[in-house]
Amino acid sequence: MTEAISIPRPLLKELYEYFSKIEEILATLEELMNKEGLERIEKSLEEYKKKDYVVVKSPEHIREALMKD
Fold first, then answer.
1. H helices then E strands: how many in the chain?
2. pTM for the model
């Protein structure tokens, strides 16, 4: 009996993509399940409505934007 199997790359890629989506859904549900998570969401929505947020052009500029506050 062998302890390894062969999986075609396209199938492996598809499985990984589905896993990633499920992981995102679980993280969202976890955030919605606790009080602090709901408070963060409410605060974020208020900031968004007031346009009280910063936009950066690339990931490299995130640290720079955070340091301005």
1. 3, 0
2. 0.51
